[in-house]
Amino acid sequence: MFRERKISSPKRFEEKVVDFDIKKLHGERLFSVSDTFGGRDEDDDSASFENEAVQYWKIFFDFSFYTLLTPFRFSWDKTTGLYKMKRSALQIFLQWALYSCCTVYFLLRVQKMSEMDPIENPSLYFQVAYYFFDTTFLVALFLSFGRQAQKVMGVFRDLQTNNQKFYRDYRNAAKTRRISATICMGCLGTLVLQILETFKDQDWSWTGFWGYWMDDAAWAFGAKPLTDICPICFGVLAITGSLLEKLFNAFSDVLFTMTVLMWSNMVNSFYDAMQQTEAAGGATVEPVDVLDHYAWLKLITKRMNFAMSLINGAFIAGNLPFYATNVFEVFGDANIFMRLRYMFYCSYWYPSLFIAAAANAKFEHVKAWICKEENYSRVPDHKLRVFLHEISYHTVGISSFGIITVTWHSVGSIISIIMTYALMKSQLNSVVPAEGDSTMNDTSIILVQNYTARSLLW
């Protein structure tokens, strides 16, 4: 329907946009080391520069590599002026060893929790659900994500090889690095809050602190003679598992946040270029260039979603049990350090959804832009037809396996689910039998009290 004549080249329009010569690319340096620390001739548009969007992922993978969360990171290659991927066999071995030991501990805890009586603790299923997603699921998630290195590298390559044509923001690369590093440092700070949280509940006693984790390990393994062989070792395993779980939870969310910030940054660059076609002092960008920019951004978004689908799904769906059951602890009477930790989680979880939805909404402005005669009249007919088809049938945004795309509509649905779960939990908590209820024996009362204390710390 959209073809009026035979086109000489069999390549699709989108493929033409991102077609480039890799050999020529390596012969021409897009960046220089001095660009990282400032310095660019503002009068020379062909001068090399640092891509601002790349820094969101680059800084994150530096932090996650040295905390044994991902087996790869990216470093600057002076010979090509591009980032290259670095791996370490020792780091991969340590990652698998740590994950294996902690996974055994996680599964044993889930088993112990599932053996409890749901009648005496009605919110048990909610507790098991969010604990499972925060632990065992995230272990599998990060191990699977470690195999996505080439997909991530493909996004890096596209961002660096097409930035001079479609991506002009270079002045704030240093600012982006500072923002990314601050967010990652905040995630590491949640580990300190977890330690302080336990100390406070144990009256700031080292003996009580270690005693709590040794008892927790003995409770999880359920084999007192075994844990008595080396109680300190099992205590270290318990606290390591707890801190690793917090690191999983925080950094999986932050990776989604970094992806959203990166994509939002590129959408803003596209939106600015679109606005420049209608500049008061004369158009500085041709509408046909905006169409090319759109096709490139659509393709890079698809590749970002392809590389991050697991993380995006964990952030959007996997976190719902947690925020449905625990988010209101921020306003409760829980440990102050727990409340600070939850406040930090909320400080980037909700804004990430809002930023992704806002970027999607800004991206949709292209529909109104192309309807203006001064724009569509300056676009070749065959490109205009392809473009109209694209914007009519495809929604561009952060998504997970194409199942859900973050828009304002989906954000509203997510918040509605969280509110519904939270109300259900509050109703279930209101029917917990009183401590003196005759239906509960002394052993059951002690068990519920011990479980409640543990769940507050976790």
Largest sheet: 2 strands, antiparallel
Poorly predicted spans: 1-49, 435-458
Total domains: 1
Individual helix count = 21
Helix content: 55-70%
**Shape estimate:** elongated
Radius of gyration: 26 Å
What is the residue-mean pLDDT, rounded to a whole number?
A: 75
Structural class estimated from helices and strands = mainly alpha
Strand-residue proportion: under 5%
- SSE run: HHHHEEHHHHHHHHHHHHHHHEEHH
Distance between the termini: 59 Å
What is the strand tally?
4
Could you give the order of strands across the largest sheet?
1-2
Transmembrane segments: 88-108, 128-146, 179-197, 217-240, 247-264, 306-328, 340-359, 398-423
Keywords: Membrane, Transmembrane, Transmembrane helix
Protein name: Gustatory receptor
Question: Which key features would you list for this structure?
Answer:
3% strand, two-stranded antiparallel ribbon, transmembrane helix, two-stranded antiparallel sheet, membrane, 21 helices, disordered C terminus, 458 residues, Gustatory receptor, transmembrane, disordered N terminus
